[in-house]
């Protein structure tokens, strides 16, 4: 299969996963990577036009493949893509933001947190993107790419001034992902956030945070290692679209989303970072 044929298979939703084309792309990594980067950059530059045309899929194949390749050249492009308007992101990629973006960011950042942090701290960025960016930091800890202390210290800065002190989903996810790192030293900050109404207790309650602490750091760390990184594309965490479709559930996706995206997610369900069995192939040095 020639490069042009591979890219043609990726371009439009057809209701089936382009497995043969993906396998060929992996086998021809050096040749296909510049094309994947081009696709992603073009998607960022022409997002509204591409969305209006409908049924476009190549950017999703590109992001998954570049993440699998751990290609750091994709990092600024993924950050730019994630900085698009929320309605555009929702239309272009549905649940990719809540289910997969965090792992993609972790896979392509090469240890550089600046782009991830810019998404988290920018109040104009889509709230679900900010949550995904927070999740990527926990994934980096679980994968051994960043230390717990480094990320907890960064989270402390968010609690103590880097986030605007009014409720947003970013606060909910900050508490949730901080809790995955046994945040005993941040318990007062977390409690203060609840007292100020910055966190929705329906998303995660303060009692849940304290119960996690009560299990002890070793238990919490083992839990984080088991759960992160999960296989992408399973379930739904708050954004309309491909809700529950990947595991055989309903409801239906939004009309503008198409079944090809569902099939794509369901088929491309592999960890984007070293998996739970310890496979570290292509892991950054």
Give a brief description.
The chain has 285 residues and is mainly α.
Question: How many domain units?
Answer: 1
Tell me the number of strands. 0
Order of helices and strands: HHHHHHHHHHHHHHHHH
Q: Give Rg in angstroms.
A: 19 Å
Task: State the distance separating the first and last CA atoms.
Answer: 32 Å
If you had to describe this structure to a student in words, what would you say it looks like?
This protein has 285 residues and is an all-alpha fold. The chain has helices at 3-11, 19-27, 29-45, 47-53, 58-68, 75-82, 86-93, 96-99, 101-108, 114-121, 127-142, 148-162, 169-179, 187-195, 206-214, 217-227, 259-267. The chain is 59% helix and 0% strand. Helix 1 (3-11) packs across helix 2, helix 5 crosses helix 9 and helix 6 packs antiparallel against helix 9 (101-108). The longest helix has 17 residues, at 29-45. It is elongated, with a radius of gyration of 19 Å. Residues 218-263 and 269-285 have low confidence and may be disordered.
Structural topology:
Elements: H1 3-11, H2 19-27, H3 29-45, H4 47-53, H5 58-68, H6 75-82, H7 86-93, H8 96-99, H9 101-108, H10 114-121, H11 127-142, H12 148-162, H13 169-179, H14 187-195, H15 206-214, H16 217-227, H17 259-267
List key phrases describing it.
about 280 residues, single chain, mainly alpha, elongated, disordered C terminus, 17 helices
């Amino acid at each position: 299969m020639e490069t042009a044929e591979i890219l043609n298979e990726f371009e439009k939703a057809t209701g089936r996963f382009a497995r043969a084309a993906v396998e060929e792309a992996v086998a021809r990594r050096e040749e296909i990577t510049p094309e994947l980067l081009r696709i992603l950059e073009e998607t960022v530059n022409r997002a509204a036009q591409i969305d209006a045309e409908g049924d476009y899929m190549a950017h999703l194949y590109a992001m998954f493949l570049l993440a699998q390749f751990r290609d750091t050249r994709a990092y600024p492009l993924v950050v730019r893509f994630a900085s698009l308007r929320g309605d555009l992101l929702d239309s272009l990629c549905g649940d990719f933001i809540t289910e997969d973006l965090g792992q993609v960011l972790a896979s392509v950042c090469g240890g550089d947190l600046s782009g991830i942090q810019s998404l988290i701290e920018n109040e104009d960025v889509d709230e679900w993107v900010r949550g995904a960016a927070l999740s990527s930091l926990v994934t980096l800890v679980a994968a051994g790419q960043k230390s717990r202390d480094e990320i907890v210290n960064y989270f402390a800065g968010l609690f103590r001034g880097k986030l605007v002190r009014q409720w947003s989903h970013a606060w909910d996810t900050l508490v949730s992902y901080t809790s995955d790192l046994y945040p005993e030293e941040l318990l007062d900050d977390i409690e203060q956030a609840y007292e100020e109404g910055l966190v929705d207790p329906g998303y995660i309650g303060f009692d849940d945070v304290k119960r996690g602490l009560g299990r002890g750091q070793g238990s919490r760390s083992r839990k984080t290692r088991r759960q992160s990184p999960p296989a992408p594309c399973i379930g739904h965490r708050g954004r309309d679209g491909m809700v529950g479709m990947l595991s055989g559930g309903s409801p239906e996706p939004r009309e503008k989303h198409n079944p090809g995206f569902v099939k794509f997610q369901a088929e491309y369900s592999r960890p984007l970072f070293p998996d739970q069995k310890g496979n570290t192939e292509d892991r950054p040095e």
